[in-house]
Amino acid sequence: MKHIAILGSTGSIGTQALDVVRQHPDQFEATVLTAGSNADLLIKQAIEFVPNAVVIANEAYYETVCEALAHLPIKVYAGDDAICQVVQMDSVDLVLTAIVGFAGLRSTVAAIQAGKTLALANKETLVVAGSIIRQLCQQHKVSVLPVDSEHSAIFQCLNGEGDNAISRILLTASGGPFNRYTLEQLERVTPQEALRHPNWNMGAKITIDSATLMNKGFEMIEAYWLYQVQPEQIQVVVHPESIVHSAVEFIDGTVMAQMGLPDMRLPIQYAFSYPRRLSLSGPKLHLFDLHTLHFERPDMQRFPCLQLAYDAIAKGGNMPCILNAAGEVCNQAFRQGLIGFMDIARITAQIMQQASYIPSPTLDDLFATDAETRQLTGLRIAPF
Ligand code: NAD
Ligand code: MG
């Protein structure tokens, strides 16, 4: 029996993780559930799964959650510090990091410091602090099991390959809803259009990041830290069908790919059950139904956020942290109708020039960089 802490249990990844737990009650137990502000769903989940502890990050809902769960043997906490504490409980074997954005960094660090195995969905942690996270994982002998579908695919392609040298990673991208749009069309897309992803049903932030290819840029950085290849060795491949979830090319020219229907429960479950595979309900991939698969080069002119990610990792230091913070603020501003779709890349690029650069940041430096960048970006979006 694996005891799992699900951070961000009310989100897209969190709810799908609970579906995996639901399917294998003899294998997995949800020991900790945490949410940001969605108290109603957290309460519903706690009543169904009866975890050891729940945390609501937004303290305004503490009383509500306490009252609703008073009849059950569940400890209820509130606030960000509490999330960092519950992941360290002895009863937790594995921590699924499914909080969205920079907000997921502190609890991920706390889980590593307590030596917990990570099922990593919060890619922003590696984008912002890849070098520090790598060091901490080595120091505390923590394994990172990727949940992002592409990184799970790469991980599966590397199974049994030992030290065999990788020549390239082929990181697939659906291309999002605007793959065929011209620059003029891209200037005019609305948040409603951008929130309609063709293949995946995800949280709002990552859906917008998928439409701009910022998400693919983040995933390139994530792959860089997870698999120790140079950025030039990571080729983004636009693959609109989302059937090949990524591939690895070895030095002999062999390309190993992992395929499946787009269903996030698959990589989530594999991270939970690794190295074993368990059954999973739902439709399966049938090759005869596929007809054709397409693979194209990404267009950095129309999707400049991807180029910004290559620039940020080339510059190193706190630049990926600046990219992430400016990107998060712009992403939200676009959803609120404050800026246009192409402004996300334009403003992020400007802020990357403006924010203070630190070549070898500490964790504290990164928190300061995040705060400074958010302030600069906020001022750029709404100057008064
Ligand atoms: P989501 O917005 O659907 O859910 C986010 C969860 O985090 C919710 O439970 C929310 O309550 C909680 N949360 C938000 N802000 C918080 C805060 N400040 N403090 C504490 N909790 C907070 O997001 P999602 O789509 O599930 O994505 C979660 C993470 O997984 C992201 O890092 C994303 O990049 C990554 N990811 C998601 C998918 C996907 O299919 N959704 C795929 C790959 C990777
Ligand atoms: Mg992904």
Protein topology:
Elements: E1 2-7, H1 12-23, E2 28-35, H2 39-49, E3 53-56, H3 62-69, E4 75-78, H4 80-86, E5 94-97, H5 105-113, E6 117-120, H6 124-139, E7 144-146, H7 149-157, E8 166-173, H8 183-187, H9 191-194, H10 204-212, H11 214-227, E9 234-238, E10 244-250, E11 255-259, H12 265-273, H13 304-315, H14 319-335, H15 343-354, H16 363-381
Helix pairs in contact: 2-3, 4-5, 5-6, 6-11, 6-14, 10-14, 11-13, 13-14, 13-15, 14-15, 14-16, 15-16
Kindly list the characteristics that best describe this protein.
384 residues; alpha/beta; Rossmann fold; 7-stranded parallel beta sheet; 4-stranded mixed beta sheet; 16 helices; globular; binds nicotinamide-adenine-dinucleotide; binds magnesium ion
Total strands: 11
Q: Radius of gyration over alpha carbons?
A: 20 Å
- Measured as a percent range, the helix fraction is 40-55%
Tell me the CATH superfamily of one domain.
NAD(P)-binding Rossmann-like Domain
**What's the story with the biggest beta sheet?**
7 strands, parallel
The helix tally amounts to: 16
Overall CATH class of one domain = Alpha Beta
Distance between the termini: 55 Å
Q: Which ligands are bound?
A: nicotinamide-adenine-dinucleotide, magnesium ion
Oligomerization state of this entry?
Answer: single chain
Structural class designation: alpha/beta
Mean pLDDT comes to: 97
CATH-assigned fold name of one domain: Rossmann fold
Choose one word for the global shape.
globular
